[in-house]
Amino acid sequence: MLKVYEATCTAPINIAVIKYWGKRDTKLNLPTNSSLSVTLSQDDLHTKTTCRAAPELKADKLWLNGKEEIIAQNKRLTNVINEMRAQRKKLEENDNSLPKIADYKLHICSANNFPTAAGLASSAAGFACLTFSLATLYQLKLDNVELSTIARTGSGSACRSLQGGYVAWEMGEKEDGSDSHAIQVASREHWPDMQAIILVVNDAKKKTSSTLGMQHTVATSPLIQHRIKHVVPKAMEDMKTAIQNKDFDSFAEITMRDSNSFHAVCADTFPPIYYMNDISRAVVNAVHDYNAAKAAMGSAQKYTVAYTFDAGPNAVLYVQKKDADNVLGVISRIFPAAEDKNIYSGFNFNDQEIDEVLAKMNTPIYPQMNAFKRIIATKVGDGPRVLANEFNDEVSLLNANGEPKELL
Amino acid sequence: MLKVYEATCTAPINIAVIKYWGKRDTKLNLPTNSSLSVTLSQDDLHTKTTCRAAPELKADKLWLNGKEEIIAQNKRLTNVINEMRAQRKKLEENDNSLPKIADYKLHICSANNFPTAAGLASSAAGFACLTFSLATLYQLKLDNVELSTIARTGSGSACRSLQGGYVAWEMGEKEDGSDSHAIQVASREHWPDMQAIILVVNDAKKKTSSTLGMQHTVATSPLIQHRIKHVVPKAMEDMKTAIQNKDFDSFAEITMRDSNSFHAVCADTFPPIYYMNDISRAVVNAVHDYNAAKAAMGSAQKYTVAYTFDAGPNAVLYVQKKDADNVLGVISRIFPAAEDKNIYSGFNFNDQEIDEVLAKMNTPIYPQMNAFKRIIATKVGDGPRVLANEFNDEVSLLNANGEPKELL
């Protein structure tokens, strides 16, 4: 068998606390405003990608969660793959000692460790992982900021998944997008006890894709111009300061206000776009009620927990480690699960502490059982990881013939 | 029995197509933006008020829907009653021939012909009727514009219920509010075939009062400043033109956009305020789908029906006479009522015409039965009416002793 070049990597998802909504350039995915996110732990949620370059491969092929995607029909994939190959080509031209693998065809296999049913935007992790694993395969000398610029052309928010901790996507000004990239505001180690609780809402109806949705909002909402020009720039500065100071109260208020502002401009779109449903709104009310109750109980914090909602009904709660169990415990009482599908069974709750907070709250028990179909409790995480920079059957998603292994 | 002075009047409700949300002066009810509404027919919905002034009355008393209200404890009531009495006093001082009835105590009895359960803002009709009936009792020489300025001090939107047809509340600039009053944009006769269908949504949970809600929005929403300064002023001008031209397409689009803008700034409030629920949003989507279907069927109109939502989940649909039955018929299929509580039974639908539109629509049948508890179909109406300007037992709400008659 001829020499096989291969890399297998994982990349994390990220959940924005200042939302990306609106493109000024749809080809290059250049945004109308900067955004900021928290990278979540790959121990819980990640995309894994194997990239192989080998002389015996006949054509570029790519599989997503076991299903083949026709690369040529997917502009976002070709953007990233062509650019990475061009970067390798440049290296090889400047250094004859390097093997000429840029000319080899590629087999790429990518899979999420969480079901799409979880309703999490997987394209960010997916394109971050594709970019990072190709950079590893090709041994490119690009830093995370340069990589983020390339990942951005695949999926805007992917640029924020190339680093761990707290990451800002600076919108930039240049027409070619070369200054529209992600920068780490603070590492996971700077503020390690940030946790995220994802409440996956039971919701059948299909939603407007965020790509289409943000175009409609920019085209029809008068209010988004105010958000772009005045609301977000201040929120970005305030959020960076809050993270530097590990100021959870400020982090929480800016996060909740920005989520509200984002869904407000969606509602101002014509026709309006609604991503949150009655369950989502009940979570919002419960969070404000919970925070008020804790403050009334003498908590030093104004906010114990913050909500944020992406382009869907699922709630993501940010909370500090010390408060996570109590917050989820109270949620489990307000949004009860049926015996046979108890999504809360994996957690250890302190019933007495839960009762104390509930006694101070006014939120009624949500009338519908099983409002959530899944709970994911995770924490702030690190950036993409290299599992192998050569063929390694233990971690590779491709078998010896370059076909995807059976994924369960 | 001594001479009794009495007047009995009715006043209509109005539903804004450009919403009033935000006060620049809470004492005088001076708004942060102008608004515009359609006055609905008193034949269907009205407040009726009897005002009596007589020497044998011992104290000012007022009954609302059979329940006594302590006037002294209600700033909004005292504002209006004191001002009207002062106006009468002035007349009497300038003309000795007039009976001195300003010094007589007042008994006032007011009742709506629709249940509060209907979830319609009754304070507008209530304060309009109180002002108008006192003006009739006291035989004041005030025009509707002057009366609207007084009614406004009781309830802001009441000033728009003092005239029929299409009414603008110009916000004014003066600190004393003397230029913040309602003006008729067009009479009912100018555009008589405007109809309104009120879908009263089944909804248990109590909502934030609009008085408190609008204060929170002004205090905490960054986006409302853009609505106030830029969105509403243009919408007011465009809406006046649309009404002058009887241009339903423009009327409909401005109405729907303003409702969306209003609920967007509510969602941008911190904590957010949600008046619409999943049923309300399903109506919005159904209306856009219906309009698209009719356009696809070759309708000359871009919009056949428009929605608007006040500070609650109920939908108000504006539609021209020719389209009203088909619109409600389609609604009755998408939001089915159970046999035993068929709120649609009073209407005659053309099933074939309904099927033709439904065949072009993508909106699924709403999963929950009885999404609405009541349907009110009405039309544009006239201004307040004088039923009697002296004691008339046939119409009076007070008996000979000045106590409320048994209602119903």
Automatic annotation (TrEMBL), chains A, B:
Q: What is its EC number?
A: 4.1.1.33
Tell me the superkingdom of the source: Eukaryota
Among Pfam families, the record links this protein to: MDD_C (PF18376), MVD-like_N (PF22700)
Q: Give one GO molecular function term.
A: ATP binding
Gene Ontology BP terms:
isopentenyl diphosphate biosynthetic process, mevalonate pathway; sterol biosynthetic process
Domain Diphosphomevalonate decarboxylase-like N-terminal span(s) in chain numbering: 11-182
Q: In which pathway does it act?
A: Isoprenoid biosynthesis; isopentenyl diphosphate biosynthesis via mevalonate pathway; isopentenyl diphosphate from (R)-mevalonate: step 3/3
Which residues does UniProt call coiled coil?
Answer: 67-94
Q: Name one GO cellular component term.
A: cytosol
PANTHER family associated with the record: DIPHOSPHOMEVALONATE DECARBOXYLASE (PTHR10977)
- Protein name per UniProt: Diphosphomevalonate decarboxylase
